[in-house]
Amino acid sequence: MEKAMKLDRGYLIALEGIDGTGKSTQCALLADYLESVGYSVVRLREPTQGVWGHKIRKILTEGRGDVTPEEELLFFINDRKEDVEQNIAPALEQGKIVLIDRYYYSTAAYQGALGFDPVKIIDDNEAFAPRPNLLFIIQGSLDESFRRIEQGRDGFSSFEKRGYLEKVRNIFDTFAGDHIRRIDSDPPVEEVQQALRQEVNALLGLKETS
Ligand code: TYD
Q1: Is 55 helix (H, G, I), strand (E, B) or coil?
Q2: How many domains would you assign to the chain?
Q3: Is residue 210 part of a domain?
Q4: Which residues, judged by CB distance below 6 Å to any ligand atom, belong to the binding site of ligand 1?
């Protein structure tokens, strides 16, 4: 396989799903794979490490406190606007593959679960954020997700509550579109990765599956 394949325009691939589905691990493995076959990959995640991302992480560790749902929604939107301007749009213009761990479908599902209209959230985001070429919704059983959250970290964030994540998951279930692929997260890591690579290979016109 030739190295450093130059794309005229980049591709944006987003990984979504509730907490504890192994998204971040899959994102890292996918980046390794794409780099190994010669693509230039930019790996991003939202919330970012920027100023809005820090406000968001404070809510995650300390609870929502007196932050209103409207403010919380605004934090995520502002964080994404910055990410699009500073990272996503420039990388796509340079013909790179952008792999993003969470994107505006997370806002639609998580802040939608607070009572905002998920469809409106998607519309508002698509006014400034490019729609991904591929959107993976990685989802398995809630029990397995909670087991992974418990294993992976010291404790649960303020969003990682069963009733809330159930609502979030139900909203993820409503998303539809040609760019959306649902991937079962319960099988072993390698199997989930194979499923992702198959879809990415199809997008890029690649034959390799390993
Ligand atoms: P997460 O990807 O779990 O980050 P970390 O691995 O650093 O904990 O994201 C943090 C939380 O933020 C997660 O529970 C989902 C939530 N979230 C939203 O509620 N709305 C959004 O728009 C995004 C991007 C994330």
Answers
A1: helix
A2: 1
A3: no
A4: 19, 46-47, 60, 76, 102, 106-107, 110-111, 157, 159
